[in-house]
């Protein structure tokens, strides 16, 4: 579904992404791991159109999407979440979800005057879909809660819910486990697996929690110093000497040899 060819992103003399090439297969849950500063988030930002590449190319379903802005990629079904959740804090959880679909009739001042019936029908349909999403994510008890009052894990679930409001094809999740307790992380993992199995979502996940990655992801891609270091199953990655040296640490390597 996604192919990245020899991608570079430079910030002055710093090569955040330095010739990375990788593929994300349709229907997969692909993990992306690596030490801090490996270029993972920058890679996400380039793929998702938030940053232009210095060179290289990105393809989706065989079509080159290099440098397309986020709103164009949004309409193609490519979405990206962030390590720090972005919610409308003063709006309810339900309202946050209803805001997601674009080109709503009520966005036009003229339409708001002359198409009130259509707007009411759209809002009713959006509310119904949002409630179905909240049921799916097992957070329907938060329907009327202000989004700013949610815990870190609940905000991550809300972000996942946003992707469901537009039937995304591929979702890039950036450190979905950051600041999330183990119980809610399990709930998030369950939702990702269900979306993948039941609705055909493809995922690529940046995460440092190797238990979470091992549970969900196959394959796992490892980045280091802006390059792809290795690709394989979680078991293969955990046994890869180069990965242990670059990411998991010399201490683990020495412990395994002892």
UniProtKB/TrEMBL annotation:
Domain ABC transporter: 2-250
InterPro entries: AAA+_ATPase, ABC_AA/LPS_Transport, ABC_transporter-like_ATP-bd, ABC_transporter-like_CS, BCA_ABC_TP_C, P-loop_NTPase
Keywords from the named record: ATP-binding, Nucleotide-binding, Transport
CDD domains, A to Z: ABC_Mj1267_LivG_branched
PROSITE patterns in UniProt: ABC_TRANSPORTER_1, ABC_TRANSPORTER_2
GO CC terms: plasma membrane
Sample GO molecular function, one term: ATP binding
Keyword ATP-binding in record: yes
Xref: Pfam families: ABC_tran (PF00005), BCA_ABC_TP_C (PF12399)
Protein name per the record: ABC transporter ATP-binding protein
Species of the source: Pseudoroseicyclus tamaricis
